[in-house]
C-alpha cells in the first residue's frame, strides 16, 4: 500500500491544491469571479461591470498525523518521515485539495442579473480512518527492524483529479426598502483526468523481521481490499491525460440576504450555499476486490513499482466493475458578514462536509469554521482569517488584495511560529477588475442642469431619502413602513409598534373588563361576564327570587294602577338589580284577585304590569329588555275565598326571558 499513500502525500505537497479554497478571500465584496465558486448568488448586484480572472490557484492540506514547522520544508535536507513530529493514532486522517482557475469572467448583464463563465482544474485526495502505526511502517518500507502486528482496520482512500467548465447565473429577486434577496445557480461540465481509490475491510498487517537478511522478512495480511480507478497514479503520474469517456455534471446552489439600512451598503449579509452536487463517471476503469489473507516477502513488497502491480502479483482478485463513479466533495456553506463601521467588516463562516466519509470513491472536505476581520476598499483589502479546520486545529493567517493581484493564507501565521503545525493553505491570483462607475455627460453652459430622480417617484435624488426605491413625497421618497408587520402602514396605524387588525386601525382589539371576551364581541364590555352569555354576567335563580320578593311588596292604590308612596324604594331596588345584568330580558306580569268582573280585572292587571314597566324604563332600564302582560284573575296562587288569599293573588311577578 506504500505507493498509493505516497501518491496522496505527493498530491498534498506538489499539486496547486479545494477544501476551503481562498480562505478569507471569498467573502470580500470585490472577490469577483472567485466568489461564485463559494456561492453563485454572490455575483448578483456586484461591484463589477466585469471581472476577468487570468490565473489563480489555491492549495489546502490538513491532517492529524504530521506536525511540522513550515519553514523546515524549504530545507533541502529536511526529511518529513524522520524529522516531523508524528501523532499516530488508531484513526489518522489526511485531506489535500487543489483548485486552479484558468481564464474566467463574470459580468453584469442588467441591474439585477449577472453571469459567470469559468474554467478550473481540481484535485482532491482523502485518507480516512487509517492506523497511524501502519501508516508509519508502510511509509518507511518496513525499515524499523522490528516485528509488529497491527490492525489497519476499515480505512478509506480516495484521490481524483478533473477539469471543470462552469456557467453561473445569479439574480436579485427581492428588493424592498431595506431588504435584498439574491439567488444563484451554477451548472458544471466535468471532464475526468484520473481517479484511484482504496478501501480496506478488517485489514491487519503483521511484519516478521529477519535481522540477518531483511529481504527474507515477511509481511502477513488479512482482510479484504477494494482497489479501483482509471489510472495507476504512481506509475503514470507524469502522463495523466484527459479521457473523453470520463465525464459528469455538477451543480452549486446559493442564496444571499442583505439588510441595507442605507442605500448602497449592507449592514448584515447572510449566505447559504451547497456546492459540488454531482459525480464523474470514469469509464476506462477497473475495480478489484483482493483477498489479503496472504504472506509475502519484504522483497516482493519493495520491488513492486506500483500498488496495482504489487496487488496483482501477490493476491487473489475478483474484478467487480469496469466503471468507476466518483462522487464530488459536496459541502454546505453558511456565512454571515457584518459591516462593523465604514470599510471594516467581520465575517463568520462555516463549511460542513455533506458526504459519508466511509463511502467508496467519495471525497470530502474538512469541516471548518472561521472568523475573519477585514478592511475593504475598491482597490485594496486586507484580511486576517482565524479558523478551526478539522484535523489541523486552530490556525491564523493573513491576506490582501491590491488592484489586480491577491495573495493570502489561512495558516501562514501559525505555520511560521509553530513547530507542529498540522495543515497549510495558500492562495494567489491575478485578474483584471472592471469596476462599475458613474458617468456624467458634460452639460452645455446655456442649458439648465437637470436634477436626477433615479427611482422616478417624483422626488429628486437630492431630497430623496431612498433614491433607489420609489416612495411617496409625504415620506421623503421612501415606501411607508409597517413596523409591526400587521398589514397596516405606520401612517394609518394607530398602534404602529403592536400588531392589530385593519378593522381596528392596526390596534389589537381591547378587552376592557378583562373577562377574556373582546369588546367587539362583548355585549357588556365594561362588566365581566361569561362567554356563554356574550360577555355579560349570568343572572342566578337567587337574584330572580329577590326581584320577585320585591315585586310582591309593590302596593297600588285600590282599584288603580298607581303606586302607594312606600312602594318607590322597592321599585328603586328593582332598578338597581336590573342594571347589574344589562344583557338580561324580563317579563313583568300583573295578577288580581276575583273581586269584580273578569274584564275589569284583566284591564287592571295589564295596567299595573305596564305601570311597573314604565317606571323601570323611566329610571334607566332599556325598553328593549322589558315586556309586560296582565293575566287578571286567571292565575291565582291562593284561595280567593279568604282575605289573606286574595292579598296574595293581587301581585306583580318578574320573570327572566331566555
From TrEMBL:
This protein's UniProt keywords: Cell outer membrane, Membrane, Signal
GO BP: cell adhesion
One GO cellular component term noted in the UniProt record for this chain: cell outer membrane
UniProt cross-references to Pfam families, sorted A to Z: DUF5723 (PF18990), OmpA (PF00691), TSP_3 (PF02412)
PROSITE patterns per the UniProt record, alphabetical: OMPA_1 (PS01068), OMPA_2 (PS51123)
Biological source species: Flavobacterium humi
Organism domain of life: Bacteria
Annotated protein name in UniProt: OmpA family protein
GO molecular function list: calcium ion binding
Subcellular location: Cell outer membrane
Amino acid at each position: 500500500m506504500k505507493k498509493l499513500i505516497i501518491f496522496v502525500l505527493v498530491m498534498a505537497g506538489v499539486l496547486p491544491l479545494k477544501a476551503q479554497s481562498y480562505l478569507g478571500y471569498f467573502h470580500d465584496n470585490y472577490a469577483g469571479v472567485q466568489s461564485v465558486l463559494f456561492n453563485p448568488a454572490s455575483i448578483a448586484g456586484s461591484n463589477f461591470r466585469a471581472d476577468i480572472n487570468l490565473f489563480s490557484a489555491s492549495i489546502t492540506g490538513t491532517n492529524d498525523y504530521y506536525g511540522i514547522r513550515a519553514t523546515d520544508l524549504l530545507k533541502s535536507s529536511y526529511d518529513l518521515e524522520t524529522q516531523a513530529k508524528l501523532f499516530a493514532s488508531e484513526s489518522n486522517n489526511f485531506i489535500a485539495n487543489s483548485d486552479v482557475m484558468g481564464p474566467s469572467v463574470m459580468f453584469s448583464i442588467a441591474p439585477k442579473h449577472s453571469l459567470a463563465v469559468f474554467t478550473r482544474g481540481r484535485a482532491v485526495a482523502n485518507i480516512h480512518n487509517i492506523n497511524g502505526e501502519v501508516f508509519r511502517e508502510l511509509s518507511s518500507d518496513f525499515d524499523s527492524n522490528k516485528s509488529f502486528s497491527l490492525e489497519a482496520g476499515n480505512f478509506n482512500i480516495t484521490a481524483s483529479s478533473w477539469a471543470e467548465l462552469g456557467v453561473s447565473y445569479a439574480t436579485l429577486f427581492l428588493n424592498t426598502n431595506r431588504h435584498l434577496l439574491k439567488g444563484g445557480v451554477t451548472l458544471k461540465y466535468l471532464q475526468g483526468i484520473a481517479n484511484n481509490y482504496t478501501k480496506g475491510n478488517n485489514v491487519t498487517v503483521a511484519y516478521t523481521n529477519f535481522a540477518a537478511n531483511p529481504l527474507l522478512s515477511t509481511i502477513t495480511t488479512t482482510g479484504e481490499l477494494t482497489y479501483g480507478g482509471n489510472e495507476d497514479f504512481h506509475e503514470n503520474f507524469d502522463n495523466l491525460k484527459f479521457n473523453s469517456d470520463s465525464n459528469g455534471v455538477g451543480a452549486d446552489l446559493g442564496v444571499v440576504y442583505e439588510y441595507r439600512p442605507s442605500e448602497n451598503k449592507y449592514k448584515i449579509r447572510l449566505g447559504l450555499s451547497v456546492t459540488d452536487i454531482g459525480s464523474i463517471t470514469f469509464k476506462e476503469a477497473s475495480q478489484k476486490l483482493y483477498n489479503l489473507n496472504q504472506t509475502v516477502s519484504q522483497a516482493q513488497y519493495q520491488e513492486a513499482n506500483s500498488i496495482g502491480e504489487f496487488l496483482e502479483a501477490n493476491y487473489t482478485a475478483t474484478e467487480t466493475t469496469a466503471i468507476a463513479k466518483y462522487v464530488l466533495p459536496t459541502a454546505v456553506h453558511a456565512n454571515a458578514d457584518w459591516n462593523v463601521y465604514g470599510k471594516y467588516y467581520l465575517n463568520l463562516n462555516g463549511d460542513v462536509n455533506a458526504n459519508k466519509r466511509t463511502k467508496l470513491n467519495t471525497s470530502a472536505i474538512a469541516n471548518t469554521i472561521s472568523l475573519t476581520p477585514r478592511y475593504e476598499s475598491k482597490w485594496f483589502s486586507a484580511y486576517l482569517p482565524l479558523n478551526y479546520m478539522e484535523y489541523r486545529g486552530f490556525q491564523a493567517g493573513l491576506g490582501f488584495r491590491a488592484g489586480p493581484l491577491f495573495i493570502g493564507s489561512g495558516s501562514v501565521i501559525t505555520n511560521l511560529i509553530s513547530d507542529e503545525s498540522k495543515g497549510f493553505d495558500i492562495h494567489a491570483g491575478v485578474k483584471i477588475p472592471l469596476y462599475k462607475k458613474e458617468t456624467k455627460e458634460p452639460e452645455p453652459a446655456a442649458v439648465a442642469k437637470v436634477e436626477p430622480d433615479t427611482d422616478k417617484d417624483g422626488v429628486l435624488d437630492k431630497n430623496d431619502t431612498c433614491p433607489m426605491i420609489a416612495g411617496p413625497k409625504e415620506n421623503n421618497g421612501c415606501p411607508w413602513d409597517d413596523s409591526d408587520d400587521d398589514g397596516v402602514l405606520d401612517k394609518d396605524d394607530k398602534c404602529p409598534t403592536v400588531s392589530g387588525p385593519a378593522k381596528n386601525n392596526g390596534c389589537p382589539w381591547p378587552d376592557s373588563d378583562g373577562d377574556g371576551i373582546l369588546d367587539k364581541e362583548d355585549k357588556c364590555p365594561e362588566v365581566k361576564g361569561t362567554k356563554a352569555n356574550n360577555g355579560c354576567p349570568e343572572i342566578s335563580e337567587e337574584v330572580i327570587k329577590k326581584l320577585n320578593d320585591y315585586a310582591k311588596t309593590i302596593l297600588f292604590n285600590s282599584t288603580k294602577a298607581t303606586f302607594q308612596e312606600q312602594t318607590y324604594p322597592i321599585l328603586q331596588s328593582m332598578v338597581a338589580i336590573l342594571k347589574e345584568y344589562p344583557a338580561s330580558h324580563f317579563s313583568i306580569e300583573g295578577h288580581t284577585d276575583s273581586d269584580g268582573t273578569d274584564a275589569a280585572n284583566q284591564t287592571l292587571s295589564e295596567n299595573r304590569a305596564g305601570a311597573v314597566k314604565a317606571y323601570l324604563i323611566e329610571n334607566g332600564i332599556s325598553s328593549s329588555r322589558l315586556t309586560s302582560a296582565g293575566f287578571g284573575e286567571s292565575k291565582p296562587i291562593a284561595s280567593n275565598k279568604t282575605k289573606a288569599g286574595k292579598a296574595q293573588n293581587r301581585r306583580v311577578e318578574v320573570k327572566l326571558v331566555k
